[in-house]
Amino acid sequence: MNGPGDFELEATELVRPYVITKGRGLPDDDQLSLITLVTAAPEQVQRPLRLSPEEQRLLDLCSAGYLSVAEIAGHTRLPLGVVRIMLAGLTEAGYLITRPPVARARLADKELLEEVLSGLRAKFG
Amino acid sequence: MVSGPSLGERPSLQSRDYVAGGASQTAVKILVVGHFAVGKTTFIGSISEIEPLSTEETMTRAAQDVDDLKGVRGKTTTTVAMDFGRLTISDRVVLYLFGTPGQVRFVQMWEDMARGALGALVLVDPERLADSFAVIDLIEQYGLDYAIAVNNFDGNPVRAEAALREALDLLDDTPVVTCDARDEQSSAAALTTLVSYLLARVG
Between chain B's N and C termini, which has fewer beta carbons within 10 Å? Predict the structure, then answer.
């Protein structure tokens, strides 16, 4: 949807988010969707980047298991756009592994919905 | 990894905060939508396995329609919060529930939320049906299948379903359930109704 009245995603009222994000732009939406699962990469021997405190904090947060992008934003209280950019940078540099949700297709939808339905019934009777 | 984290600089998470079996989980999402104060966060909280979280996005737009009238060129910013929770369905699927503000103007957020969603549960206050029109319009605009959950927290008798269907202009097969968003079982039943319907739709 594009047209007059549409919004741009910005975070102008924060502490200069482009400083935190080192000037990076927004990453591809699908790669870091709200429910993309993120964790620290197992091997981090070679670290080409000097990490900012914010990046180190994100990496620490992701080091104990998988969290969704939305959860990372929620726990850190950073705006979603800023978190996405930082995660994209860390992923690019090999610090993080991301697992985007499966591409939507009719068959996949059916299997997922069946799984969700039986799971809900099992949990809540 | 650096052990001995500097406490206070990062949230201290418990192992239960992380997605169980994350390496083999497929994440899916369902939207919980409705007008202001209809009970979205309560609903999510009643069924989520984690304390519901919130994330904010600052929306900025050129405000021609408002500010130009006053001779001020500029932008208006609005901070929008979305609340969400998580429910591990099985060792293969983890379900996220996103509570979405009903305001039509948060286009970017809606696109983010709607993309890839399995469907939507529309929470409706039977006393404020007209407030739900805009939300239902948006859901339809994004092509999401939905069910209606009438949040009947006061225990008041809900108006006849036929009248409600007519008022909301629903299709004949759109499910309508009554729920108490504070109650886990009741919320789960509403969700189950939605997912059954979604499954029938992909048939």
Answer: C
On whether ipTM exceeds 0.90, the answer is no
Which is more confidently placed, B152 or B147?
B147
Chain A residues within an 8 Å CB radius of B96: 34-35, 68, 70
Alpha-carbon Rg for chain B, nearest whole angstrom, is: 19
B127 lies within 8 A of chain A by CB: no
Q: Where are the domains of chain B?
A: 23-55+84-202
> Which fold would CATH assign to domain B23-55+84-202?
Rossmann fold (3.40.50)
Name the residue among B10, B75, B96 with its Cβ closest to that of A70. Answer: B96
pLDDT digits (tens, 9 = 90+) for B162-198: 889 999 999 999 999 999 999 999 999 999 999 999 9
Helices A53-61 & A80-92, crossing angle to 10 degrees? 80
Chain A environment of B112 (Cβ under 8 Å): 29, 33-34, 80
Say if A114 falls within a structural domain.
yes
**What is the 3-class SS of chain A, one letter each residue?**
CCCCCCCEECCCCCCCHHHHCCCCCCCCCCCCCCCCEEEECCCCCCCCCCCCHHHHHHHHHHHHCEEEHHHHHHHHCCCHHHHHHHHHHHHHCCCEEEECCCCCCHHHHHHHHHHHHHHHHHHHC
Residues of A with Cβ-Cβ distance to B53 under 8 angstroms: 70-71, 74-75
Our separate counts of H helices and E strands in chain B read: 6, 7
CATH of the domain at A66: 1.10.10
